[in-house]
Design a protein that fits this description.
This protein is an alpha+beta fold. The chain has one domain. Helices cover 15% and strands 64% of the residues. The protein starts with a strand and ends with a strand. Pfam families: UCH.
Length: 72
């Protein structure tokens, strides 16, 4: 995902998602781009695994809490 705003190109670099019934209970997970910029990682408690863009977009589409962009 890329956006051009404020005179530059930005792309999505990470997402924090919340899974649960309210912000006071549930579980937070994060998805971040790896250093190559083409793959995504899912970080949940003590586990880190590779994941797909379709999984990332499905999670933050329903449960996105914070999105992080980097200027390209």
């Amino acid at each position: 995902m890329e956006a051009s705003d404020c005179g530059g190109q930005y792309r999505l670099a990470g997402v924090v998602s919340h899974l649960g019934s309210s912000l006071y209970c549930g579980h937070y997970i994060s998805h971040v781009r790896d250093f190559s910029g083409s793959d995504w990682l899912e970080c949940s408690d003590a586990s880190i695994k590779r994941t797909s863009w379709s999984n990332v977009s499905r999670n933050f589409g329903k449960n996105g809490y914070m999105l992080f962009y980097e200027k390209s």
